[in-house]
């Protein structure tokens, strides 16, 4: 792929400035037009050391309005970043809708480095490439414009550039992301880079290989590629993402044994027992750097809040974070729907408990029409991919659906209306949701059919008896932690 690069003709300063003046005006026009579309733009600037990536990024900020650009440079991962899944640090830095994010370093740097250092084999390298494809596809499906630029230079040019940079590096060690650990490794770096570029070349997110030998030429080439990509998106009314075909779901809820119950004395004994076990297991997970991600979903008035309180009552407050999910804020709506969940994940060894979760996309957003059919239908695969990323990093993922009968829900609604200290729990929206029980039931059954995975299983909890539901959740949490921790 790299040996087919077309050599760019050299430009003198006057020719460059003449073309740059026109290009800058056109880029600014497209940048401002993109704000109105609400589509974010991601510009990935990658390439060999000494190819002029930093200079190009500086030029792009000069040509366009920097107030609408977020430039992200990724140095070696911090301790906090190491204690999260690989893509966590990139999800957190995604630009708002209508803004431009420039990624220098990006998600390509680490796989190449590991491959050059022979720290990963062929299979692991392909896994890294596949996850990059998944990540970029998710962003593109959501409307993002992903522009990937690879700056290529010869070994001779690289050596000259690094030698010129070396004195500045000695004066300021932060001038580069790492102190040229690839010096003398041009050929293996080139092979690994070309292979990763080839494996991540897709129709949705194509690579643009730029001859980086001459500064003026590469900057004009990069600017024209960006301009063409922005114009193409501006001519599209929406990204072409047809909804996938989904198989019919099984009736999982019909099999939930709602008659299960516990007597008060037995409940107290088992509650104390499993809370004590969960406390010990939470500390063991902390010592072994294994995080827990637990999701609590269920019908209105199914007892999620009281069940979560029994879980948090068993875990040291320093070891967990309870995240309550409501309608997205303006900031959250300005990003991919998974963004607000990725950024709330806790470090290795700690628990993140979600009171409602990313499954809102295939439940309330599906039923209420807040997400289009294409959006919620592709969300099943996106959710499975996210949970696989979590579990492969070492997280223990547990998902609970608290199920009750329509009759039990009605009784609890009426009880809430009569008890002054519980009246705040019942709203007109709860009654409206109840009228849509069949639609939600179908959505839940399809959710379980398509996202119940060995690495992230669904537990359907009989909730007509709250005592039984609480103990059952604690028991299953303990069991999953024990199996994961050996």
TrEMBL record:
GO BP terms in the entry: polyphosphate metabolic process
UniProtKB keywords: Transferase
Gene: pap
Pfam families named among the record's database cross-references: PPK2
One MF term in the entry's GO annotations: polyphosphate:AMP phosphotransferase activity
Classification lineage: Bacteria, Pseudomonadati, Pseudomonadota, Gammaproteobacteria, Cellvibrionales
Full protein name: Polyphosphate:AMP phosphotransferase
InterPro entries to which the protein is assigned, alphabetical: P-loop_NTPase, PolyP_AMP_Tfrase, PPK2-related
NCBIfam families: poly_P_AMP_trns
């Amino acid at each position: 792929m790299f040996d087919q690069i077309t050599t760019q003709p050299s430009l003198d300063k006057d020719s460059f400035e003449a073309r740059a003046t026109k290009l800058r005006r056109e880029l600014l026009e497209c940048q401002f037009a993109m704000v109105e579309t609400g589509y974010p733009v991601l510009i990935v600037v990658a390439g060999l050391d000494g190819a002029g990536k930093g200079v190009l990024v500086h030029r792009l900020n000069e040509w366009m309005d920097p107030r609408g650009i977020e430039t992200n440079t990724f140095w070696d991962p911090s301790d906090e970043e190491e204690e999260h899944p690989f893509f966590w640090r990139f999800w957190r830095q995604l630009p708002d809708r209508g803004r431009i994010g420039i990624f220098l370093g990006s998600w390509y740097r680490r796989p190449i480095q590991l491959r050059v250092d022979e720290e990963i084999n062929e299979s692991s390298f392909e896994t890294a490439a596949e996850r990059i494809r998944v990540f970029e596809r998710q962003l593109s499906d959501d409307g993002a414009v992903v522009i990937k630029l690879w700056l290529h230079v010869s070994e001779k040019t690289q050596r000259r550039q690094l030698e010129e940079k070396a004195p500045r590096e000695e004066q300021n060690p932060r001038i580069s992301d790492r102190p040229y650990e690839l010096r003398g490794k041009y050929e293996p770096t080139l092979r690994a880079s070309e292979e990763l570029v080839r494996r991540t070349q897709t129709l949705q997110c194509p690579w643009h290989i730029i001859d980086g030998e001459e500064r003026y030429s590469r900057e004009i080439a990069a600017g024209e590629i960006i301009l063409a990509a922005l114009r193409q998106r501006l001519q599209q009314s929406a990204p072409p993402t047809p909804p996938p075909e989904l198989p019919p779901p099984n009736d999982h809820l019909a099999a939930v044994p709602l008659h299960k119950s516990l007597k008060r004395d037995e409940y107290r004994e088992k509650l104390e027992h499993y809370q004590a076990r969960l406390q010990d297991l939470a500390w063991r997970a902390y010592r072994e750097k294994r995080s827990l991600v637990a999701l609590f979903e269920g019908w209105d008035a199914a007892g999620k809040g009281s069940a979560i309180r029994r879980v948090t009552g068993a875990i040291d407050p320093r070891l967990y974070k309870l995240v309550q999910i409501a309608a997205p804020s303006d900031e959250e709506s300005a990003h991919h729907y998974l963004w607000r969940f990725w950024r709330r994940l806790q470090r290795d060894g700690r628990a993140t408990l979600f009171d409602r979760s990313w499954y809102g996309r295939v439940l309330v957003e599906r039923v209420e029409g807040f997400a289009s059919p294409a959006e919620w239908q592709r969300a099943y695969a996106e959710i499975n991919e996210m949970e696989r990323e979590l579990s492969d990093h070492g997280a223990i993922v547990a998902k609970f659906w608290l199920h009750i009968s329509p009759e039990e829900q009605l009784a609890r609604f009426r009880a809430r209306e009569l008890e002054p200290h519980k009246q705040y729990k019942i709203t007109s929206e709860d009654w409206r949701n109840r009228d849509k029980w069949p639609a939600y039931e179908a959505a839940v059954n399809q959710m379980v059919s398509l996202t119940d995975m060995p690495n992230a299983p669904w537990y359907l909890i009989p909730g007509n008896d709250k005592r039984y539901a609480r103990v059952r959740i604690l028991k299953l949490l303990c069991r999953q932690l024990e199996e994961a921790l050996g």
